[in-house]
Design goal:
By secondary structure, the chain is an alpha+beta fold. The protein is built from three helices and four strands, in the order αββββαα. Bound molecules: zinc ion.
C-alpha cells in the first residue's frame, strides 16, 4: 500500500471517530418511520459506518467532517436504494452546488 493511501486511511479513521462523537449513532435514526414519497424509513440495522453526504464519485471529501456522517449498515444500503428520499431528508446531496 502506498504511503499516500495509508495517510488517507488514517485520516478517514480519525474523521470517523470525530463523526461518531458528534452524531452518537446512525443519523438516520431520527427519521425511522418517516414516510417520504410512499417510502417509509426502516429501523436501524447492523454496524455503524462512516458515510459521505456528497459521495466520493461526486467529488465529496471522505476526510472532511462536514461531509461525513454516521449511518448504520442498513441505512447505508437503504440510502443507495432510495437516493431521492435520502436527498429529501438531507442524508445525501448531489453536490455542493445544491
Ligand atoms: Zn440507521
Amino acid at each position: 500500500m502506498s504511503t499516500r493511501r495509508t495517510k488517507q486511511l488514517r485520516e478517514e479513521v480519525a474523521v470517523k471517530k470525530l463523526a461518531l462523537a458528534r452524531d452518537k449513532g446512525c443519523v438516520a435514526r431520527w427519521y425511522v418511520g418517516t414516510q417520504v414519497n410512499d417510502t417509509t424509513v426502516p429501523a436501524c440495522f447492523g454496524r455503524l459506518e462512516k458515510d459521505e453526504i456528497v459521495s466520493r464519485s461526486r467529488g465529496g471529501s471522505p476526510t472532511d467532517l462536514t461531509n461525513v456522517q454516521i449511518l448504520c449498515a442498513g441505512h447505508n444500503v437503504w440510502k443507495e436504494d432510495h437516493p431521492t428520499v435520502a436527498v429529501a431528508l438531507g442524508l445525501a446531496k448531489h453536490s455542493w452546488a445544491h
